[in-house]
Amino acid sequence: MTKAIRIHAPGGPEVLRWEDVPTPEPGPGEVLIRHAAVGLNFIDVYFRTGLYKTALPAILGMEASGTVAALGDDVRGFVVGDRVAYATAPIGAYATERVLAADRVVKLPDGIDFNTAAAMMLQGLTAQYLLRRTYKVQAGETIVVHAAAGGVGLILCQWAKHLGASVIGVVSTSEKAELARSHGADHVVVGHADLVAEVKRITGGAMVPVVYDSVGKDTFMASIDSLAPLGMMVSYGNASGPVGAVDVGLLGAKGSLFLTRPSLATYTAKRADLERGANELFDVVTKGVVEIRVNQTFALKDAAAAHEALEARRTTGSTILLP
Ligand code: NDP
């Protein structure tokens, strides 16, 4: 048997149950991975609450690191004992072991330990595609990053700084402001009420070419109003709730803006894109350009406490769950 955190119905953190489930067997093209560490992500909350739908009962989680424990038929490129990690659908990472298509798994370089890997795969691959593909940030540009002291946020700040950009981070407390500043944010705005005025002041009225907004409902309009003409609104999360319907005419009225709602699944659907993104991420982390801050560690069986902390905005950086 394998131990896993399962939900039988959507709800609050109390629906997360530590249960015995049968150890899965890898089918053709699949590997069995013995998890060393599991990553906690805000998307896990969306699946738990039912905002994102799944068949029930369900094992949550989309990210982990560990060791290949068995191979199904027709698996090439992996052997038992390989150190690996992943960030992908389908959900099922909150378990001591799981099977996954080998195509979705990458080998870890020696310089990256299991805890760091579990903390960085989903948030780091997200930062990679946001900065390098959704909108290619250029040296000298000023950009806005919401939830700048969070998991994705701290990686975005450091990586954008490395690309030569100037970062305006948005956070909710002065402690988080300090953390964002020490990870590359040049300016930090506490609360989004003053965001537009602050962006105007910092950019001398030019406003910014891109806003990375993971907060959603609460910040959408402030983000739109922070953009320069032809700017790109990247709405990539809903920590405060989904944005809802948008009047397309608004984009014209606000300066011929672009709006995208990207997801990591699309950007890593092709194996070549997954490998390219992972290699870029491994490169910036092993060189020390991006430090992965594992600021909270919970036992996997205590996933409910981890969810409570994440939803209550008590976490900073990344959080891992240890099986
Ligand atoms: P974070 O560590 O960033 O935690 C969420 C943060 O959002 C909080 O710490 C808080 O920061 C901020 N926040 C603002 N309003 C709220 C609210 N009402 N409730 C809770 N938090 C709020 O999480 P992750 O790094 O795991 O994820 C960041 C975001 O990126 C999430 O929205 C997630 O869904 C999204 N995401 C999207 C992906 C994609 O491909 N589209 C992939 C990965 C993540 P503060 O207190 O400073 O405001």
Give the gist of this structure:
31% of the residues lie in helices and 27% in strands. The protein has ten helices and 16 strands.
Could you explain how this protein is built, in words?
The protein has 10 helices and 16 strands. The protein has 2 domains: 2-121 and 268-322, Medium-chain alcohol dehydrogenases, catalytic domain (Quinone Oxidoreductase, Chain A, domain 1, Alpha-Beta Complex); 139-261, Rossmann fold (3-Layer(aba) Sandwich). Strands 3, 5, 6, 7, 8, 15 and 16 form a 7-stranded mixed β-sheet that branches. The protein has a 6-stranded parallel β-sheet with strand order 11-10-9-12-13-14, sandwiched between helices. Strands 2-1-4 form a 3-stranded antiparallel β-sheet, with no helix packed on it. β15, α10 (303-311) and β16 (318-322) form a beta-alpha-beta unit. α2 packs across α3 (151-162) and α2 packs across α9. 31% of the residues lie in helices and 27% in strands. It is of the alpha/beta class and 323 residues long. It has helices at residues 42-49, 114-134, 151-162, 174-182, 195-202, 220-225, 248-253, 264-267, 271-286, 303-311, and strands at 2-7, 17-21, 30-40, 58-59, 63-71, 83-87, 97-101, 106-107, 142-145, 166-171, 187-190, 208-213, 227-235, 258-260, 294-299, 318-322. It binds NADPH dihydro-nicotinamide-adenine-dinucleotide phosphate. Residues 41-43, 122-123, 126, 147, 149-153, 171-172, 176, 214-215, 218, 236-240, 262-264, 310-311, 313, 315 line the site of NADPH dihydro-nicotinamide-adenine-dinucleotide phosphate (NDP).
